[in-house]
Amino acid sequence: LLPSLIFSCFLISLVDSKRLSDIYWNSTNPHLESCSAIDDLVDIRCPSGKTNEQVIIYRVSKVEYDECRLGDSPKEVGRCVDPKAETKLKIAFRMFQPNPFALTYQPDTTYYFISTSTGSPNGLTNREGGLCTTHALKMKMNVVKRGAACHSHRKHHHHKTTTVPSTTVSRDIPLGNPYRLPDPEERREEWILTPSMPIESIQKK
């Protein structure tokens, strides 16, 4: 009964969801601040082209955001590891998710995101400092109730980096293994979710 109820609420949220403007996550676009309502969707575009940056995006506490460091159980939002492709990490700001590995969000709450990676492959799993310190690569996301107006002040415009012609790789997350890319026929809006498995769990797999 409970799974059916959650899935029904999820289907209702699809009707009311709104897609926000893309957020460009790269070192030339620091101190991001945005706002979303419950059930909104947003694409975070990974660095591509000449920047050649490889990063991991984490959702963290305010203290970790301020200090540019990861705590004991950081929540991974996604990985940008292929600068030659236009990779998008898709986030759904939902209170309930059908995917058990997806992050959930509550209204009237501010969420914090950082990248402590250095930008190079060798510094991908760096746990403190990195681009968060050197280039202020971090973001605040103010989440409000569904249908409520957002009043956040964006501190920086979302500039697009120079890209190379390539096929866009969408990180659509179907049920099952949340760390594999789906087949084309699986790319359905309802499975656009974000994994939130602790880093320690990922390393054990």
Automatic annotation (TrEMBL):
Subcellular location, principal: membrane
SUPFAM superfamilies xref list: Cupredoxins
UniProt-annotated stretches for the region Disordered: 151-182
Native organism: Pristionchus fissidentatus
Location(s) in or outside the cell: Membrane
Disulfide bonds: 68-132
Biased composition (Low complexity): 162-171
Cellular component aspect of the GO annotation: plasma membrane
PANTHER family given in the database record: EPHRIN, EPHRIN RBD DOMAIN-CONTAINING PROTEIN
Source organism, top-level taxon: Eukaryota
Annotated InterPro entries: Cupredoxin (IPR008972), Ephrin (IPR031328), Ephrin_RBD (IPR001799)
Taxon lineage: Eukaryota, Metazoa, Ecdysozoa, Nematoda, Chromadorea
Composition bias, Basic residues: 151-161
Keyword terms, alphabetized: Disulfide bond, Glycoprotein, Membrane, Signal
Gene Ontology annotations of biological process type: axon guidance; ephrin receptor signaling pathway
Keyword Transmembrane helix: no
Similarity comment text for this entry: Belongs to the ephrin family.
Signal peptide: 1-17
Single GO MF descriptor: ephrin receptor binding
Name of this protein: Ephrin RBD domain-containing protein
CDD domains in the cross-refs: Ephrin_ectodomain
One Pfam match: Ephrin
Residue intervals of the Ephrin RBD domain: 18-143
